[in-house]
Q: What sequence folds into this?
């Protein structure tokens, strides 16, 4: 898993540990938090709002881009969630390659 900043299609920024899945839903997020502006700085809020769920799945059509968070945001997030989650993720099976004669 990697700590990433996601820009969602509705304009929401989310920082979370992410594991990209081979099929839809495309992203498994652990301990996601919404990034919001607060005065001259940023703050982190529970994501999704009104839920204490720590693991969520997102479809690729919900995600505009995935980038590295800047050091300030990374530090703020790791104050709340200092460690990478210790969970067992599914292993994807390698796709069989079909050989065709030309």
A:
């Amino acid at each position: 898993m990697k700590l990433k900043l996601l820009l969602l299609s509705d304009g929401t920024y989310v920082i979370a540990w992410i594991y990209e899945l081979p099929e839809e839903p495309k992203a498994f997020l652990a301990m996601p938090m919404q990034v919001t502006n607060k005065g001259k700085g940023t703050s982190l809020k529970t994501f999704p709002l009104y839920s204490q769920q720590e693991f969520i799945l997102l479809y690729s059509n919900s995600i505009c881009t995935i980038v590295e968070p800047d050091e300030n945001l990374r530090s703020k997030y790791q104050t709340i969630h200092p460690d990478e989650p210790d969970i067992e993720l599914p292993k994807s099976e390698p796709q069989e390659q079909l050989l065709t004669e030309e």
Q: What stands out?
A: Confidence is low (pLDDT under 50) at residues 95-102.
